[in-house]
Amino acid sequence: MEGVGEEEMEGVDHLAHERNKSEFDVDAMKIVWAGSPHAFDVSDRISKLVASDPGFRKDNRSTLSRKELFKNTLRKAAYAWKTIVDLRLSEEEAAKLRFYVDEPAFTDLHWGMFIPAIKGQGTEEQQQKWLPLAYKMQIIGCYAQTELGHGSNVQGLETTATFDSQTDEFIIHSPTLTSSKWWPGGLGKVATHAIAYARLIVGGREHGVHGFIVQLRSLEDHSPLLGITVGDIGMKFGNGAYNTMDNGVLQFDHVRIPRNQMLMRVSQVTCEGKYKQSDVPRQLVYGTMVYVRQTIVADASCALSRAVCIATRYSAVRRQFGSQNGGPETQVIDYKTQQSRLFPLLASAYAFRFIGEWLKWLYADVTQRLQANDFSTLPEAHACTAGLKSLTTTATADGIEECRKLCGGHGYLCSSGLPELFAVYVPACTYEGDNTVLLLQVARFLMKTVSQLGSRLSSKKPVGTIAYMTRVEHLMQCRCGVQRGFAELSADLVEAAVAHCQLIVVSKFIEKLQQEIPGKGVKQQLEVLCNIYALFLLHKHQGDFLSTGCITPKHAALANDELRSLYSQVRPNAIALVDAFNYTDHYLGSILGCYDGNVYPKLYEAAWKDPLNESVVPDGYHLYIRPLLKQEIRTARL
Ligand SMILES: CCCCC/C=C\C/C=C\C/C=C\C/C=C\C/C=C\CC/C=C/C(=O)SCCNC(=O)CCNC(=O)[C@H](O)C(C)(C)COP(=O)(O)OP(=O)(O)OC[C@H]1O[C@@H](n2cnc3c(N)ncnc32)[C@H](O)[C@@H]1OP(=O)(O)O
Ligand SMILES: Cc1cc2nc3c(=O)[nH]c(=O)nc-3n(C[C@H](O)[C@H](O)[C@H](O)COP(=O)(O)OP(=O)(O)OC[C@H]3O[C@@H](n4cnc5c(N)ncnc54)[C@H](O)[C@@H]3O)c2cc1C
């Protein structure tokens, strides 16, 4: 193997000159990014714990076969659980551990959907029975909603749950091929139980889709129970990437479960076969999706900031052109074109961090209200979680790909970390609701609000995130007919929904800046980023702003000038602004993004570790290359 001098690999901080340029207190910014001194402490401690433990190694994922990859994920999940138990980690610390282990696994669905579904839709009694088992991982659950034929259209699911009053049981059945459950994570090979969604039929009458706790596999030998056919749906996009997850297929053949395994907080079936609806809205059956959409928004800033950190550090290391008198070439980060692609993404990472924080608050608020039987803010919470999930995941997936391009050719190497990050992240635009379908929900909410504006029948004034609507006069003129023309106008309405969500992100960023933010220069940096975020959007959509007369061409030109000036203000602080994410090299998983910026020796070293380089002459030489070179190809046995 070709070696690299030890001194070239270790110890020298190639980005030190960049760090010295920064004009703000990076440690204080780390606290702002983490959310609080306590959150910073937990995150910092757990990230270092994971990074220093060889049990959590992840640099070999792209070279493993699916079976090896999956087995390794099982090992890591078991090891993570042992670490959590041995170290007596709190729930907050355990969640951080899962985050820094950085490998999609069945545990995400168990903790992220199965348990929340029981908590949100189960009765007290059901929670008391199932949650202790789930918390100790004595059962492992998944969330089985989507089917081969229907994902977005939940009302179109075909699986049935028919009540049998003779035996006090439900019979869960997949009547067609398209009713096979398809996609649930953890289902393929691991889950012992599922929250399965099915159309409830009682006494021959249908009552829509409800959730049921169904055991799938034996707790003794893991074999599927009678009437259950279950397996993995196959390889997904990208090597490694989301293939650590066993997304599954499941068919029920008249599987019987006790009546008390229907989640009965929203509606109940009595032993006499009576269907009863509580006074909580039916939409609470969708509550787990609202919860997860909110966590996805909070996670978007993590994925985007990770890509931005890699691209920013590498852009400061990489030099092309511009050498004067034999001096060093220009750092690519100094090119205005690089800045105009990179810095809006840096600003977006911060914007999404704060919108995630705000959405957590909104979710906690609506949960509290629901407990007190106040359902008034549910439509707004649904619109915000759906819309912001769509906005942030689309921007993050696009942003990760842009960061890959910002790293030139080296960004295409797996060792840059960016291809895998993209492949793992991009399904977030589809799962928990296809992003366009979710924006249509926001559009519906907006149109409903518009149709009520000024209506004599409605005395309610729009509040919260739609309060601005009373101030937009020409909305009043748009009221007529928009409800009737919804489908025809849906492409435009989706754009309106995006604009509404962008407004929320910008206004919450501005609200954040109205708070006290300690630390030298921290607030000023955030103001610059906030202005970049807002002006970049204005610049990108200037056609819309100009055509609606919201701005003049002069305003548009001024905004563009200001944007360029803001990029110059960010430039000296760029490295410190990504250092503030406090990511370990282990978590970043990228040679291009490593903290010390010592990129080239590490790339060189890593190349020699590729399995193809294990032998100088490749396997297959004698069979395929030599006959070709010797012109013996016609006689060779191929
Ligand atoms: C090792 C140790 C580990 C320790 C670990 C510790 C912690 C780890 C913790 C957690 C891990 C964290 C997170 C990870 C979790 C998961 C993320 C990872 C992987 C993702 C897995 C993906 C899962 C899935 O994809 S599940 C399936 C999701 N499916 C969808 O999203 C379907 C999308 N479709 C819909 O939501 C709806 O059907 C629809 C499109 C909204 C319905 O449209 P429509 O038919 O028009 O509506 P109706 O059904 O008729 O509804 C009418 C009425 O209701 C309103 N509505 C709709 N939805 C909601 C809602 N959710 N809430 C409130 N209201 C709603 C609708 O607007 C309409 O209102 P209106 O009548 O007033 O207009
Ligand atoms: C990696 C991954 C993990 C998943 N994990 C789970 C899980 O754990 N549990 C689970 O239950 N499900 C899971 N899913 C399924 C996921 O929730 C669905 O795939 C998702 O909700 C989208 O539904 P769909 O596949 O039916 O898309 P479709 O609705 O078929 O979308 C296809 C196209 O049609 C468009 N479209 C659909 N409806 C409309 C409309 N009304 N108007 C305009 N355009 C429309 C969409 O925008 C899209 O472009 C997972 C999916 C993935 C990719």
TrEMBL record:
SUPFAM superfamilies named in the record: Acyl-CoA dehydrogenase C-terminal domain-like, Acyl-CoA dehydrogenase NM domain-like
The Acyl-CoA oxidase C-terminal domain, residue ranges: 473-630
Domain Acyl-CoA oxidase C-alpha1: 286-447
Domain Acyl-coenzyme A oxidase N-terminal: 25-140
Oxidoreductase in keyword set: yes
Keywords assigned: FAD, Fatty acid metabolism, Flavoprotein, Lipid metabolism, Oxidoreductase, Peroxisome
Family to which this protein belongs: Belongs to the acyl-CoA oxidase family.
One GO molecular-function entry: fatty acid binding
Organism (species): Rhododendron griersonianum
Protein known as: Acyl-coenzyme A oxidase
Position of the signal peptide: none
